TrEMBL record:
Rhodanese domain location: 68-163, 197-288
Lineage of the species this protein comes from: Bacteria, Pseudomonadati, Pseudomonadota, Candidatus Muproteobacteria
Pfam families found in the cross-reference section: Rhodanese (PF00581)
Keyword Chloroplast: no
SMART domains: RHOD (SM00450)
Alphabetically ordered keywords of this record: Signal
Coiled-coil regions listed in the entry: none
Species in which this protein is naturally found: Candidatus Muproteobacteria bacterium RBG_16_64_11
Descriptive protein name: Rhodanese domain-containing protein
Record's signal peptide: 1-25
InterPro entries assigned to the protein according to its UniProt record, in alphabetical order: GlpE_sulfurtransferase, Rhodanese-like_dom, Rhodanese-like_dom_sf
Region named Disordered: 295-314
Length: 314
């Protein structure tokens, strides 16, 4: 009898709880969601494909860099061309290819023995930030780390701490995507088919890259730092309503140049896939004709004509 009465009381309390909350699981519904599981090694390897090759290089993620932003030296190890167009705000430029790289990094370390030095480059498939750490360590410079997500992730995550064409803060929608770049990319055969009276061909290769003209008497030349010449050609294309056809050495510099064209309001333009080397490959098969020279020159550090950062990959 006592047991029956106790059960009745307990049942009443439970029923009252249901009426009050509207659910038997109301208490659980208010419980905080479990924390997400940490990324597995496989997930990180997929997201950062170069990390397994640089297991001795310490890395910093985007959240950590944002928290420590004012307490670290941020070093851009890319070319002046890339730095002058899209970079992390307050970053200093010390190109990895500069012969004085170690000397300049050591100067930062001498300013503060404890302040971390964070190297970055374009993104997850760029080796330069990792190589910068190894080069600094080999020179006995301590407390160096790689921000291997690079400018691509940073600009999307923190536009307020990024600079585009000398402006800050930036707008995320200004960052070009790979899809946007591909929409203006033609294979060499299709590119050549467009060469004619309704187009202007522009060779933007550096002087040391120019073995010969691909389209004799049908093209104009201007290096990416020759702002005046570039502007004149772009205005001519707009005024005469002609398609601007642009090629470089191996198809990399034009990724940056797209920003310049968009900034100038030009919409009718195309790039040649693979650049001059792609043209040679398409005509003669994959040969080494000029490849090493052009690939090396492709990395030559030049100052942009008002800049043009590479498309931010989706």
């Amino acid at each position: 009898m006592h047991i029956t009465k106790s059960l009745a009381v307990l049942g009443g309390l439970l029923f009252a709880g249901f009426l009050t909350t509207g659910s038997w699981a109301a208490t659980d519904a208010k419980s905080p969601a479990p924390a997400p599981a940490p990324a597995s090694a496989a997930d990180l390897a997929a997201k950062f494909p170069l990390r397994p090759q640089y297991i001795d290089v310490p890395v910093l993620d985007t959240v950590e860099l944002d928290k420590k932003f004012s307490d670290v030296y941020i070093v851009d190890v890319r070319s002046p061309y890339e730095y002058d167009t899209l970079r992390i705000k307050d970053a200093v430029l010390i190109p990895l290819t500069d012969k004085n790289f170690v000397v300049e990094v050591r100067k930062l370390r001498e300013k503060s023995a404890n302040k971390p030095i964070v190297f970055y480059c374009n993104g997850k498939t760029c080796r330069k930030s990792y190589d910068a750490v190894l080069k600094a360590k080999a020179a006995r410079i301590s407390n160096v780390v790689s921000y291997d997500a690079g400018i691509a992730d940073w600009a999307k995550s923190h536009p307020e701490k990024s600079m585009l064409l000398g402006r800050t803060p930036i707008k995320v929608e200004e960052l070009l995507t790979s899809a946007k770049f591909k929409a203006h990319l033609l294979d060499p055969k299709a590119f050549e088919a467009k060469v004619g009276p309704n187009s202007i061909v522009l060779d933007v290769r550096d002087r040391v890259q120019r073995d010969n003209q691909l389209f004799p008497f049908k093209e104009q030349r201007a290096q990416l730092e020759e702002k005046g010449k570039l502007d004149a050609i772009i205005e001519q294309a707009k005024r005469d309503k002609k398609t601007l056809l642009v090629y470089d050495a191996v198809g990399k510099q034009v990724e940056w140049f797209q920003y310049y064209l968009e900034n100038k309001g030009l919409t009718d333009y195309f790039f040649m896939k693979g650049g001059a080397q792609g043209h040679f490959d398409a005509k003669y098969g994959k040969i080494s004709f000029g490849a090493k020279k052009e690939a090396k020159a492709e990395t030559k550090e030049t100052k942009p004509a008002n800049g043009a950062p590479p498309p931010v990959k989706n």
